[in-house]
């Protein structure tokens, strides 16, 4: 089962987690703080599992945004899929 | 251990936390527990210092730079406010202004770049460890893990990365140790510390000038920073400030982490376990970084009044965030939080390396150095004892560890 299938709770606010790879220095903090949303890719760089997530994961996403030493993450509100 | 710790601290209402008290350096845990349980927002009037000790409070304060700012210094005391203003001011900023500081010199400490240093770290580890163990084989005597292995190893690696000459490592290390050392109970920077810091600063300026004249066309950190300065994006003072910080962080934190690990392995009778199961070194090191990290305290300045646990925090006061206490707070890590337990699954984010834009720049290199050196050590050593009567602690307001850690009764592997 895909991440989105497990975590999408239906219509409501959706968010987009974005990694700015020009700032990212691959500290891995986002993976430690929000493993539900971010995992290491094949080359070790963090990869957002699913671009969209719902309010249930907003807290952990904001933790990752604030915890990134480089300020390389941001959250944007997105329209419902 | 040293006899300064002989007089136990009275932990009652009269107690005032003093980060310069040698008894705290010897045994911080009972003090941490008292503060967490009875005085979670502690105040030392004489130092105008608030002390936060619970995980939730320390964690929240690290994230709240609108109230707890990094604007002054990461230590309580400032070496010399006028002479060292540039050095301190360069790094003492909050996010987002601080973020760019981390990217200087081509981001030399990312996990990938740190990982690529594995062969060099292994070489230096075996070099210093090999010399010490050879002496054990020939004389059956022990050696001092700090002065013979941990100190020279961490200095050699950071020196190689910066581009500092090998032959200068010992005196740089000596200046660093003198610079951070404080008298018992006193926040005053003594003349010896000030003199050592001035010598180190003068050395770095001379070194910088020499590299500049030689073209600064190498791949080491100093050459890359000189190129940034020459392009006009950075002042020379701030370039020197970056080198200064790298010398202290690369030397002090990593060396003390290694020493604390060797101490904890013996103290928890894990030396034979780690020899038989080197795959446990990673787990072991994670626990050492939690229960006995070199980074015990970070300091902030209260820039906005607020209230916590019924205590009014006054603007302008300093705040000590006790990372070492937070990391063993049973409220966050369970009832056995203060114990070293291999295989522990952490129930909270470790605070050892700080938070956000001030998250430890050299974490990955430090972990690499420590894990490789410990693997090499336990591959070659089955067991050992520590001569506690000759151990000495470092006495600084931030770093926790040993200046001397004599090993004896060393049982070498065949």
List the helices and strands and how they pair.
The complex is a heterodimer of chains A (81) and B (414).
Chain A: H1 3-7, E1 14-19, H2 29-33, E2 38-40, E3 46-48, E4 52-54, H3 58-67, E5 73-78
Antiparallel strand pairs in A: 1-4, 1-5, 2-3
Chain B: H1 22-26, H2 29-38, E1 41-44, E2 49-52, H3 55-63, E3 68-69, H4 85-91, H5 111-115, H6 118-139, E4 143-144, H7 145-162, H8 169-180, H9 191-213, H10 221-230, H11 236-267, H12 271-276, H13 281-291, E5 297-302, E6 306-308, E7 311-313, E8 318-322, H14 323-326, H15 330-333, H16 363-380, E9 381-386, E10 392-393, E11 402-404, E12 406-412
Parallel strand pairs in B: 2-8
Antiparallel strand pairs in B: 1-2, 3-5, 4-12, 5-8, 6-7, 9-12, 10-11
Individual helix count of chain B: 16
- Helical content of chain A stands at 10-25%
Major sheet strand order of chain B: 1-2-8-5-3
Instruction: Describe the global form of chain A.
Output: globular
Number of strands of chain B: 12
How are strands sequenced across the largest beta sheet of chain A? 4-1-5
Return Rg of chain A in Å.
Answer: 12 Å
Strand content of chain B: 5-15%
- Report how far apart the termini of chain B are: 32 Å
Percent range for β-strand residues of chain A? 25-35%
Largest beta-sheet details of chain A: 3 strands, antiparallel
The SSE order of chain A reads HEHEEEHE
Task: Name the poorly predicted regions of chain B.
Answer: 2-6
Order of helices and strands of chain B: HHEEHEHHHEHHHHHHHEEEEHHHEEEE
Give the class of chain A from helix and strand content and strand pairing.
alpha+beta
Instruction: Please give the largest β-sheet of chain B.
Output: 5 strands, mixed
| Tally of DSSP β-strands of chain A | 5
Number of helices of chain A: 3
